[in-house]
Automatic annotation (TrEMBL):
<keyword id="KW-0813">Transport</keyword>
<feature type="transmembrane region" description="Helical">
    <location>
        <begin position="153"/>
        <end position="174"/>
    </location>
</feature>
<dbReference type="Pfam" id="PF00528">
    <property type="entry name" value="BPD_transp_1"/>
</dbReference>
<dbReference type="InterPro" id="IPR000515">
    <property type="entry name" value="MetI-like"/>
</dbReference>
<keyword id="KW-1003">Cell membrane</keyword>
<keyword id="KW-0812">Transmembrane</keyword>
<keyword id="KW-1133">Transmembrane helix</keyword>
<feature type="transmembrane region" description="Helical">
    <location>
        <begin position="217"/>
        <end position="238"/>
    </location>
</feature>
<feature type="transmembrane region" description="Helical">
    <location>
        <begin position="259"/>
        <end position="282"/>
    </location>
</feature>
<dbReference type="GO" id="GO:0055085">
    <property type="term" value="P:transmembrane transport"/>
</dbReference>
<protein>
    <submittedName>
        <fullName>Carbohydrate ABC transporter permease</fullName>
    </submittedName>
</protein>
<dbReference type="GO" id="GO:0005886">
    <property type="term" value="C:plasma membrane"/>
</dbReference>
<feature type="transmembrane region" description="Helical">
    <location>
        <begin position="317"/>
        <end position="338"/>
    </location>
</feature>
<keyword id="KW-0472">Membrane</keyword>
<feature type="transmembrane region" description="Helical">
    <location>
        <begin position="186"/>
        <end position="211"/>
    </location>
</feature>
<feature type="domain" description="ABC transmembrane type-1">
    <location>
        <begin position="149"/>
        <end position="338"/>
    </location>
</feature>
<comment type="similarity">
    <text>Belongs to the binding-protein-dependent transport system permease family.</text>
</comment>
Length: 352
């Protein structure tokens, strides 16, 4: 944010001070629509994660988590749901015994008598705001959610760390060393971006099986460490580091690894932060590759584990929404912590 500007002044500033042009209106409309397009699904998922299972599939859907009110009625073993009924021009609260087609059998919950047949068009459910905390507590206590979370954290952390080290070493060699075929190697690395993932997935799986890493978390981590995107991003940023600085370090008898570790890496921190954000998002949200490699439930990552809530005949949307919303927290924290480096890191890749 520009220094000296308050948040309101920053958001309401225009191209021409004191005048609102067409471009200002279009910019505000674009930003507002883009924000709503991203925010509304997240808000809906968060609110729906607190809804009872029956309310998630209800039509028309409701924004707030609400549930039907139930009451114990004498003469009935199970509690009955309460409905607002129009009877002889009066609105009354009655309990539904059963529903047969377009007719509902209703009784007075305070003075139950013979059921009264009412048209379903004349009834509406009595609901109240209800937070279904069991959507969060059940997966944590009855299922292996914590195991899935631990595996995802391990895979994401280790894969991101190795990705930063391996791609930084490759970028350092391609940006600060001159050798025959350096440009050809760089073009070859970048050209792999055009190869679809489905083409290399089968050969990669055969390699993982051959080295004995199938059904192992390392079988997910190692094949994804080398990234052409990471090499390109870091190389372009390292080109902005003056060669004279490295030559001066060599004159002072610094080793090549010391130059890389103490000089180049600290200066490349913005680009490393950008690559770290990308890597965390890639590893945390990866579903297909862990689904192929892993077969034991105790090794499932979070995304594969969430698939266990989807059965052949039913889908436990209340658990899926709750755990999906909970899984957004780690990547959101990482993004908020490193987002200030995004602009600096990406802008620096095109300076040279």
């Amino acid at each position: 944010m520009t220094q000296g500007l308050s948040p309101i002044a920053f958001l309401t500033r225009t191209r021409r001070p004191g005048r609102i042009g067409v471009t200002d209106i279009l910019s505000w409309a674009w930003l507002i629509l883009g924000t709503l397009a991203v925010l509304i699904p997240v808000v809906w998922a968060g609110l729906s994660s607190f809804k009872p299972a029956a309310e998630i599939t209800r039509f028309p859907p409701t924004l707030l988590p609400r549930a039907a009110v139930q009451q114990t009625v004498p003469g009935f073993d199970a509690p009955l749901s309460l409905w607002t009924v129009d009877v002889d021009g009066q609105r009354r609260e009655m309990a539904m015994v059963r529903r047969i087609g377009l007719k509902a059998q209703m009784v007075d919950p305070s003075n139950p008598g013979p059921p009264v047949s009412v048209d379903v068009k004349n009834i509406s459910p009595v609901q109240r705001l209800t937070i279904a905390t069991e959507n969060y507590t059940d997966p944590l206590t009855r299922f292996d959610f914590l195991t899935f979370l631990k595996n995802s954290v391990f895979v994401t952390f280790v894969a991101t760390l190795l990705t930063l080290v391996v791609n930084a070493l490759a970028a350092f060699a391609l940006s600060k060393y001159r050798f025959r075929g350096e440009k050809a190697i760089f073009v070859l690395i970048i050209s792999t971006l055009m190869i679809p993932l489905t083409v290399v997935m089968v050969p990669a799986y055969l390699v993982v099986v051959g080295v004995g890493l199938v059904d192992s978390l390392w079988g997910i981590i190692i094949p994804t460490v080398a990234s052409p995107t990471g090499v390109f991003l870091l190389r372009q940023y390292m080109l902005t580091i003056p060669d004279e600085l490295i030559e001066a370090a060599r004159v002072d008898a610094a080793s090549e690894f010391r130059i890389f570790w103490r000089i180049v890496l600290p200066l490349t921190a913005p680009a490393l932060a950008v690559l770290a954000i990308f890597s965390v998002l890639w590893r945390w949200n990866d579903f297909l590759w862990p689904l192929i490699v892993l077969s034991s439930r105790e090794n499932f990552t979070l995304q594969v584990g969430l698939n266990a809530f989807q059965g052949e005949f039913s889908v436990q949307w209340n658990y899926i929404l709750a755990m999906t919303f909970l899984s957004l927290a780690p990547v959101t924290v990482v993004f908020l912590f490193l987002q200030k480096y995004i602009t600096t890191g990406i802008a620096g890749t095109g300076m040279k």
